[in-house]
Amino acid sequence: MFEEPLVKAPHLVVALMTVTIMFAYAIESLFKWAKRVGAVIIIITLGIILGNLNVVTQNSPVYHIISTHIIPVSISLLLLRLNLKSIKELDKGILLYFLIGSLGTIAGAVVTFLILGGYVGDEAWKLSGQLTSSYIGGGENAVAVGHYLGVARDYFTAAFAADNVVTALWMLVCLSAPIGFTRFFATRLPESEIEKAKEVSEPFAAYEIVPSVFYSLSAASIIVVLSDYLTTLINKSLIKGEGGLDFPSILLVTTLSLILAQTPLRRYFKVSYLLGVVMFNYFFFTMGAISSVSEVLRIGPSVFVFVATVVIVHAVVVFVVGKLIKADLPRLLIASQACIGGPSTACALAEANEWPHLVAPGILLGVLGYAIGNYAGIGVAFFIHNYLM
Question: What are the boundaries of each domain within the chain?
Answer without folding.
Answer: 1-59, 65-389
